[in-house]
Amino acid sequence: MSNSEQTLSIIKPDAVERNLSEEIKNEFKKNGFNIFKEKKVKLEKSEAEKFYQIHQSKPFYNDLCEYLSSGPIVVMVLEKENAIVENRKLMGATDPIKAEEGTIRKKYGISIDKNSVHGSDSSENAKTEINFFFKE
Ligand code: CMP
Questions:
Q1: What is the largest CA-CA distance in the chain?
Q2: pLDDT tens for residues 47-80?
């Protein structure tokens, strides 16, 4: 039985700025993800605050929102069987230093903040995050 699932992926400002969007999109395609929807946007800080509201009590919340709204990002709806878990595996650990060989964050990430990509961490958050960017 097919268990195709959707997840939200963001190519963050550090990667867009270094012209890595196409390379990173190819990583997803090579690993069997279908890029179902895609757009390039630049968020206002207030929008980044809304997107990351789940982290609002964290000490890094303000910097995180400043950063996500600091430049253009590419947001995508990715599809694959078990897309949420598969995308998290492909991205690697949040901190690029701890990410495994071959993962996107290991290859392209600069720091825990500038870690090149975001991916939904649960099916509930995937729905909320997809709806945030692609509300019809
Ligand atoms: P992301 O998957 O986009 O979700 C929240 C982001 O917060 C995370 O990636 C990191 O880039 C950023 N962040 C900054 N500091 C930390 C930290 N100490 N722990 C976890 N995430 C952090």
A1: 43
A2: 999 999 999 999 999 999 999 999 999 999 999 9
Overall pTM surpassing 0.90 (yes/no): yes
Clarify whether 118 is annotated catalytic.
yes
Whether the CB of 125 sits within 6 Å of ligand 1: no
Best of 8, 51, 56, 60 for a ligand 1 pocket test (most atoms within 8 Å of beta carbon) = 60
AA letter at 8:
L
Three-state DSSP at 37 gives strand
Contact 119, 9 (CB under 8 A): yes
Class of domain 4-133: alpha beta
Q: Token pair 């990430």 is at which residue?
A: 109
Domain residue spans of the chain:
4-133
